[in-house]
TrEMBL record:
<dbReference type="InterPro" id="IPR018298">
    <property type="entry name" value="Adrenodoxin_Fe-S_BS"/>
</dbReference>
<protein>
    <submittedName>
        <fullName>Ferredoxin</fullName>
    </submittedName>
</protein>
<feature type="domain" description="2Fe-2S ferredoxin-type">
    <location>
        <begin position="1"/>
        <end position="104"/>
    </location>
</feature>
<keyword id="KW-0479">Metal-binding</keyword>
<dbReference type="GO" id="GO:0005829">
    <property type="term" value="C:cytosol"/>
</dbReference>
<dbReference type="GO" id="GO:0046872">
    <property type="term" value="F:metal ion binding"/>
</dbReference>
<keyword id="KW-0001">2Fe-2S</keyword>
<dbReference type="GO" id="GO:0140647">
    <property type="term" value="P:P450-containing electron transport chain"/>
</dbReference>
<dbReference type="InterPro" id="IPR001041">
    <property type="entry name" value="2Fe-2S_ferredoxin-type"/>
</dbReference>
<dbReference type="InterPro" id="IPR036010">
    <property type="entry name" value="2Fe-2S_ferredoxin-like_sf"/>
</dbReference>
<dbReference type="GO" id="GO:0009055">
    <property type="term" value="F:electron transfer activity"/>
</dbReference>
<dbReference type="InterPro" id="IPR012675">
    <property type="entry name" value="Beta-grasp_dom_sf"/>
</dbReference>
<dbReference type="InterPro" id="IPR001055">
    <property type="entry name" value="Adrenodoxin-like"/>
</dbReference>
<keyword id="KW-0411">Iron-sulfur</keyword>
<dbReference type="Pfam" id="PF00111">
    <property type="entry name" value="Fer2"/>
</dbReference>
<comment type="similarity">
    <text>Belongs to the adrenodoxin/putidaredoxin family.</text>
</comment>
<dbReference type="GO" id="GO:0051537">
    <property type="term" value="F:2 iron, 2 sulfur cluster binding"/>
</dbReference>
Amino acid sequence: PKITYIESNGKTHEIEVKTGNSVMEGAIKHNIPGIDADCGGACACATCHVYVDAEWFDKTGGPSVMEESMLDFAQDVEPTSRLSCQIRVTEALDGLIVRLPESQH
Ligand code: FES
């Protein structure tokens, strides 16, 4: 599935990410700046914060309770904020668009 990552400066990366990988892993593997992922995907650092495009938010399933509480530690949280290590890539997410927050740049 193709995922589009948009950096805070507007630079856009359209990447083919493997099914089963997280949106965070897709970014790290392709060296996309703006996702730090300090904890390596354990939902324990909030440095993989992204803004999911509003049209896609429902399709990603929304954050779990654990993710919600970790999001409290992210900066500039918005209604469509997610931790990208907690979004699994599936065929249904082909075309997903996420924006990367300025604070992680
Ligand atoms: Fe740490 Fe996502 S990588 S919370």
